[in-house]
Structure formats: C-alpha cells, structure tokens
C-alpha cells in the first residue's frame, strides 16, 4: 500500500450557502490523499499501474465547476467521483477549504474533510 497526495489545489468557484456567494464567487482549496497499491508502478515505471494525477485534477476541477451550497456536499461529490473512477483506490480523504468565508469576522479559511474506505 502507498499514498498519493495532491495538496494545495486552488480554484475560483461559485459555491456558498448564500445566493450572493454563488454570484460573486470565492477562492477554494482542495487536498486529496489516496491510499492505493503503488508497488507495480514502482517496479515497472508505467503510468497505467498507478493513479494518473492529471485525471485526479480533472475530476476535482469538474466538481468545482458545479455550484454547491455546502462544502460538505462538494467534498461528498468529489469522493463519489474518485471512488467510482479509480477502483484501485482503497481509501480517499478529501479536504475542501473556502478562503475568507463570510462569517462577520476574520477567518482565513473554513475547511471540511471527508474520508471514505472501500468495503
């Protein structure tokens, strides 16, 4: 087993509970941590033996382009896609952050993290 991580992905997107947030948009961050078997890729040096980072990024980008009210829902959608499109992934953790959330005070980011294990 091994871990693949994509950290610090940044997007400008139109998520938020309030209608205004969905109109003006905001900056978001995403971190992915995936557990999968990396031994074959390590031995063969072949991309087909591992999870392609470009495809991972594309999956996240596509979900970030579809508005959501809640970060929880957005993270759930990303997890659904990862577990569907990458059957070799045994465990996935997704963190979604909203920078400068509208809380009425200073907050650098709000973050949710969801984890799913394959049965």
TrEMBL record:
<dbReference type="InterPro" id="IPR006156">
    <property type="entry name" value="Dihydroneopterin_aldolase"/>
</dbReference>
<feature type="domain" description="Dihydroneopterin aldolase/epimerase">
    <location>
        <begin position="4"/>
        <end position="116"/>
    </location>
</feature>
<dbReference type="GO" id="GO:0004150">
    <property type="term" value="F:dihydroneopterin aldolase activity"/>
</dbReference>
<keyword id="KW-0456">Lyase</keyword>
<dbReference type="GO" id="GO:0046654">
    <property type="term" value="P:tetrahydrofolate biosynthetic process"/>
</dbReference>
<comment type="similarity">
    <text>Belongs to the DHNA family.</text>
</comment>
<comment type="pathway">
    <text>Cofactor biosynthesis; tetrahydrofolate biosynthesis; 2-amino-4-hydroxy-6-hydroxymethyl-7,8-dihydropteridine diphosphate from 7,8-dihydroneopterin triphosphate: step 3/4.</text>
</comment>
<keyword id="KW-0289">Folate biosynthesis</keyword>
<dbReference type="InterPro" id="IPR006157">
    <property type="entry name" value="FolB_dom"/>
</dbReference>
<dbReference type="InterPro" id="IPR043133">
    <property type="entry name" value="GTP-CH-I_C/QueF"/>
</dbReference>
<comment type="function">
    <text>Catalyzes the conversion of 7,8-dihydroneopterin to 6-hydroxymethyl-7,8-dihydropterin.</text>
</comment>
<dbReference type="GO" id="GO:0046656">
    <property type="term" value="P:folic acid biosynthetic process"/>
</dbReference>
<dbReference type="Pfam" id="PF02152">
    <property type="entry name" value="FolB"/>
</dbReference>
<dbReference type="GO" id="GO:0005737">
    <property type="term" value="C:cytoplasm"/>
</dbReference>
<protein>
    <recommendedName>
        <fullName>7,8-dihydroneopterin aldolase</fullName>
        <ecNumber>4.1.2.25</ecNumber>
    </recommendedName>
</protein>
């Amino acid at each position: 087993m091994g871990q693949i991580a994509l950290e610090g992905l940044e997007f400008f997107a139109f998520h938020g509970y309030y209608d205004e947030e969905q109109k003006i948009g905001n900056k978001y961050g995403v971190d992915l941590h995936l557990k999968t078997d990396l031994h074959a890729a390590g031995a063969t040096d072949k991309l087909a033996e591992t999870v392609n980072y470009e495809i991972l990024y594309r999956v996240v980008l596509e979900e970030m382009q579809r508005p959501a009210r809640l970060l929880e829902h957005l993270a759930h959608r990303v997890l659904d896609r990862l577990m569907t499109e990458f059957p070799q992934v045994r465990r996935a953790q997704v963190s979604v952050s909203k920078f400068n959330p509208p809380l009425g005070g200073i907050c650098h980011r709000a973050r949710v993290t969801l984890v799913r294990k394959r049965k």
